[in-house]
């Protein structure tokens, strides 16, 4: 993980230095500061946006005493301050950790998750989310996501500026356009690095859950496959699920990949219990197409996650 983070920062610094050496540094720095300020402000207010999109509400100990006990117990075992506990009123089974200096850390559990999973599986999912908080993944991914955004806006600004240069400045305009195209290309390279880092963070959060929760690897494995199966059914039933994937990087499982991940179940017929459900996934072979698709995903392939949890167990 540290090597990936160092590569992202190092390559960004190198490429940014080259741009500053070739064109007017003041305008690029101003644009970079503007992009950073916008994204930092977005991070500060993101919890309020998330609460509105996912219909998140506070939940009291009287309403969910077992949920409170689980979160407090895992937080203590993890050595982190107990986050605020929220309920998201959406049908897909999922959970997510989020927060900012304005709101503090929060863990939200969806109604769909509580209706789909056994409480021991909910415990393992909460262990995963608190793992994200312990590893400061919210802050790390916010910082890393800034770098591709800077190069994206720098690239488009240079390309647009090059279109309005005077005749006597066409040589400089061509250089600006070339650097703009290179910046957009570098944006895509950084995005792939960022997605890879996001997938690594999911593995680390899985490992954390397996460590702090009794039989965490088994419980989380069963919870993950039930989330995938249930998400597929709900996605087919509702036509407006796309909007619920706006912040899918926060989720424990990517709702957009649930359809293809669950195809194995339709081929294998009826599964009798949770352990057989996990075993059916583990027998799958990850195809080349799935490996390529994973490169553009915030979450690891479900089969790879289950195998990693089996190794821990």
Task: Write structural notes for this entry.
This protein is of the alpha+beta class and 313 residues long. The protein is built from 13 helices and four strands. The chain has helices at residues 2-22, 25-53, 65-78, 111-116, 119-134, 137-162, 170-212, 216-237, 258-261, 263-268, 274-282, 288-294, 302-312, and strands spanning 56-58, 84-88, 95-100, 104-110. Strands 1-2-4-3 form a four-stranded mixed sheet, with helices on both faces. Helix 1 crosses helix 2 and helix 1 runs parallel beside helix 6.
Largest sheet: 4 strands, mixed
- Helix percent band: 55-70%
Shape: globular
Strand arrangement in the largest pleated sheet: 1-2-4-3
Instruction: List low-confidence stretches.
Output: 1-6, 265-270
The helix-and-strand class reads alpha+beta
Task: Spell out the helices and strands N to C.
Answer: HHEHEEEHHHHHHHHHH
Number of helical regions: 13
Average pLDDT, to the nearest integer? 80
Query: What's the number of extended β-strand segments?
Result: 4
Beta-strand share of residues: 5-15%
Distance between the termini: 22 Å
Rg calc:
22 Å
Write the topology of this structure.
Blueprint: H1 2-22, H2 25-53, E1 56-58, H3 65-78, E2 84-88, E3 95-100, E4 104-110, H4 111-116, H5 119-134, H6 137-162, H7 170-212, H8 216-237, H9 258-261, H10 263-268, H11 274-282, H12 288-294, H13 302-312
Parallel strand pairs: 2-4
Antiparallel strand pairs: 1-2, 3-4
Helix pairs in contact: 1-2, 1-6, 1-7, 2-6, 3-5, 5-7, 5-8, 6-7, 7-8, 7-13, 8-11, 8-13
């Amino acid at each position: 993980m540290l090597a990936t983070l160092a590569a992202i920062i190092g390559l960004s610094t190198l490429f940014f230095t080259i741009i500053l050496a070739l064109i007017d540094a003041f305008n690029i720095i101003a644009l970079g500061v503007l992009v950073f300020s916008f994204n930092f402000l977005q991070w500060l207010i993101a919890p309020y946006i998330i609460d509105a999109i996912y219909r998140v509400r506070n939940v009291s100990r009287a309403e969910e005493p077992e949920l409170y006990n689980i979160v407090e117990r895992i937080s203590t075992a993890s050595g982190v301050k107990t986050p605020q506990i929220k309920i998201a009123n959406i049908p897909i089974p999922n959970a997510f950790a989020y927060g900012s200096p304005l709101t503090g850390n929060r863990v939200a559990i969806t109604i769909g998750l509580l209706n789909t999973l056994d409480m021991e599986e909910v415990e393992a999912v909460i262990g995963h989310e608190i793992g994200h908080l312990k590893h400061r993944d919210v802050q790390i991914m916010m910082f890393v996501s800034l770098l591709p955004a800077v190069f994206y806006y720098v690239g488009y600004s240079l390309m647009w500026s090059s279109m309005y240069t005077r005749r006597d400045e066409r040589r400089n305009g061509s250089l600006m356009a070339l650097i703009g195209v290179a910046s957009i290309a570098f944006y895509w390279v950084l995005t792939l690095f960022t997605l890879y880092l996001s997938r690594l963070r999911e593995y680390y959060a899985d490992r954390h859950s397996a460590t702090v929760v009794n039989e965490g690897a088994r419980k989380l494995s069963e919870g993950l496959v039930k989330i995938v199966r249930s998400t597929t059914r709900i996605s087919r039933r509702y036509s407006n699920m796309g909007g619920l994937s706006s912040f899918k990087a926060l989720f424990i499982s990517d709702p957009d990949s649930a359809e293809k991940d669950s195809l194995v179940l339709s081929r294998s017929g009826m599964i009798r219990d949770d352990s057989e459900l996990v075993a059916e996934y583990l027998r799958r072979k990850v195809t080349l197409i799935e490996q390529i698709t994973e490169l553009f995903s915030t979450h690891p392939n479900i089969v790879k996650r289950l195998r990693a949890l089996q190794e821990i167990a």
